[in-house]
Amino acid sequence: MNLVFATNNMHKLEEVSNILLSTCHILSLRDIGFEQDIEETGRTLEDNSLLKARVVWDWLREHPQTVPVDGVFADDTGLEIAALDNQPGVRTARWAGEEHDDAANRRKALRLLHDKQDRSARFRTVITLITAKDNVGAETSPIAAQVEGRVEGRMAEQESGDGGFGYDSLFIPDGYDRTFAQLPAKTKNAVSHRARAVQQLKLLLL
């Protein structure tokens, strides 16, 4: 089975491919020649995940691939910080500005949390899978399904660790005393929000 993951983020691709290795072959947007930007205008993670998957699905119908594509999936992830009214939420990737600057996002989180006692937070990932009974390009109505993964934790008082990306150097998952960025990749991939969502996706594919 060949699935397109609607991303060119190499960190995400590696994490997801490792989980789905025995189930399917993952193609990135770059692999299929998709170069346009997808404007994330949804009001929720569910909206944006579905929007991205639909845009790529429709594009594939107009751009058949040499390798048959069996489906498309897209994710959207949000960090929800309790003391900040569950911000940044759907704005997680662009909280500090539209340029998608991870370091600036982390600085903003630390600045807004500097006087907060409650540092509890959670990550949520929503994945939308679009498939059809036949390959992309066939006259078959697409079928969309959504799954979610989440992990509870807390925000650290300073950045720690060199691994991961995004807010990983600030987020400490429940049951651990280290940030995602400090944990071995194998450990993070077993407990992260994205890993849990992908495990649910895997069940849809079996």
Question: How would you sum up this structure in a few lines?
Answer:
This protein is an alpha/beta fold.
Characterise this structure.
With 206 residues, the chain is of the alpha/beta class. It has a single domain, classed as Maf protein, CATH 3.90.950. It contains 6 helices and 7 strands. Strands 1, 2, 3, 4, 5, 6 and 7 form a 7-stranded mixed beta sheet that branches. Helix 1 links the parallel strand 1 and strand 2. The longest helix is centred in the first third of the chain and has 18 residues. It is globular and about 55 Å long. The N and C termini lie close together (11 Å). The model has no long low-confidence stretch (mean pLDDT 92).
Query: Which structural class fits the helix and strand makeup?
Result: alpha/beta
Secondary-structure element order, N to C:
EHEHHEEHEEEHH
Helix content: 25-40%
Any idea of the CATH class? Alpha Beta
- What is the number of E strands? 7
The radius of gyration is: 17 Å
How large is the count of helical segments? Answer: 6
Largest sheet report: 7 strands, mixed
Could you say how many structural domains there are in total? 1
> What overall geometry do the principal axes of the alpha carbons give?
globular
Please state roughly what percent of the residues sit in beta strands, choosing from under 5%, 5-15%, 15-25%, 25-35%, 35-45% or over 45%. Answer: 15-25%
How much is the average pLDDT? 92
Per CATH, what is the topology?
A: Maf protein
**Low-confidence parts lasting 5 or more residues at pLDDT below 50?**
none
Task: Kindly report how far apart the N and C termini lie.
Answer: 11 Å
Q: Based on the coordinates given, report the CATH architecture.
A: Alpha-Beta Complex
